[in-house]
Amino acid sequence: MAPAKKRNVSSGKTEESVKRAKININSKVESILESKKHANDVFDILEFLQSEKEKDVVSAANACSKLFCSLLERKDLFMGKLPGEEEALSGGYSAEEKYSIFMRHRYNSCVEMLLEHLSHKLHGVKESALCCLMKFAAVEGQHPLEDLDWSEHYSFPRELIQAVVDSLMSKTTDNSLLISRFQEFLEMEDVRYYVMSSIRENVGKVMDKNKGAVAPIYQNNVFTLISNIIIPSQESELTNFMVKQEAKHEDWKAAKLGEHKRVFERMWLGFLKYKLPINMYKKVLVILHDSILPHMSKPTLMIDFLTAAYEVGGAISLLALNGLFVLIHQHNLDYPDFYKKLYNLLEPSVFHVKYRARFFHLANLFLSSSHLPVYLVAAFAKRLARLALTAPPTALLIVLPFIYNLIRRHPSCRVLIHKPSTEDEPLEDPYIMDEEDPAQCRALESSLWEIKTLQKHYHPDVSKAAILINTPLSEQEDDISEVLEITTYELMERDLNQAKTKSIPLEFETATQLLKVGGVLGQHFCLD
């Protein structure tokens, strides 16, 4: 118990020392603001800002926020091109100017320390530094430190925002938690506009320096930041600004929706033109059609990224085709070989991937048009039927209704079912499974004999679904959405939980005990 008491005493002393330090820091801030003769006390505050203790750093950050925001509002910081401290002492500056130069240098030092703290190992320090820097940005926007000439009448702390963004997009540390905290500032129109510009600039510099090689941590930080950016749908919604521009607010680029879309588009294109980690392709493609394409002024510019994503293969290729499908139908993009690429995605592995449900949902959407050529639909039906021979039961319950729906939409494909045959017909299937071009696979010359084979499948639900092809198909399509998400576990549970059959009599006399006295077993065996 002795060590525990020691810890309690030390923690109590620590809390008291923190309280004293906090009171001391606050008193120093008050004394600096009251009289310029206490200006050197700012060094003590900055020293606390470099402390190894989290509470000291947080207290110092709050004190710096109060001190320098007040000095900015009072215009006690030097404005314009900042001379060096030695130059200020030797030059012909008044006492007021020397004080403002001195405090401006201290302000710059504070900003540098806070930017370094954005990479601190403790999240509390990171969060305090971020909030303090954004307070500086807000006040600096209202009281700019640079002399603006008559043509540049928009004041905004671009350099400070750029520095914050550069720190958030670290190359070595995952800043997802800190970026989620930064998201609230992205709700302000001007902050969002200049953050997007800063991201595009930073990505170009870092990735070019990296020679386009994949940088997983950095690219994940960038994606986390840009995926949180939401563009308003109407210009009238641009009302929340961090910095209020007094003159010609309407002409400000940050106040125009068209400019927001332009910068948004350039930001995403600048990020996506470089090679991404494999898992990030999925993240981007999943949000592409909802969160990215609608806010771009020219969505068709995404064609290069989508084409590159398709070449990756697997589920990523399907998600890429989803984006291409949106561009084709909504933006009149002419993209050749779309259905040829979709056809080549039909492989045995498609029944076992995580995105199986999404695959068949989208494939059903892609093949829903009744204007598709017959040879193309027949090729899809035949390929799915061939793959069905080795597919698991859960996949077959999707594939069979899928094939039936294709035949319902295109009655000309019924020839695959009602194939006239003769005794002299060769037994070889003319369908070429390895042919990549659906126009050359000779599907219409074949038949769906695979479904006939599945009528003897070991699972009763599969054989029941396969038998439906023996009867005329109804005009109403099957709803495959109910079976898209079904798993093997759910299928087994459903079979096990079926209503139990009535008890079946096995012998005339009901047995009441295992070894009946007088019986044959009772004569030769006993339970002792």
Give a quick account of the main beta sheet: strands, pairing sense, barrel closure. none
**What structural class do the secondary elements suggest?**
mainly alpha
Percentage of helical residues?
Answer: 55-70%
- Overall, the morphology is elongated
Radius of gyration: 36 Å
What labels would you give this structure?
56% helix; 528 residues; 22 helices; mainly alpha
How would you describe the overall organization of this protein?
The protein is mostly helical and 528 residues long. Helix content is 56%, strand content 0%. α2 crosses α3. The protein is elongated and about 115 Å long.
Offer a concise description of the structure.
By secondary structure, the protein is an all-alpha fold.
Topology:
Elements: H1 2-34, H2 42-49, H3 54-73, H4 85-90, H5 95-117, H6 123-142, H7 158-168, H8 176-182, H9 189-209, H10 216-226, H11 257-272, H12 278-292, H13 303-310, H14 314-331, H15 338-344, H16 356-366, H17 374-388, H18 393-409, H19 449-454, H20 460-467, H21 488-496, H22 520-524
Helix pairs in contact: 1-2, 1-3, 2-3, 2-5, 3-6, 5-6, 6-8, 7-9, 9-11, 12-14, 13-14, 14-16, 17-18, 18-20
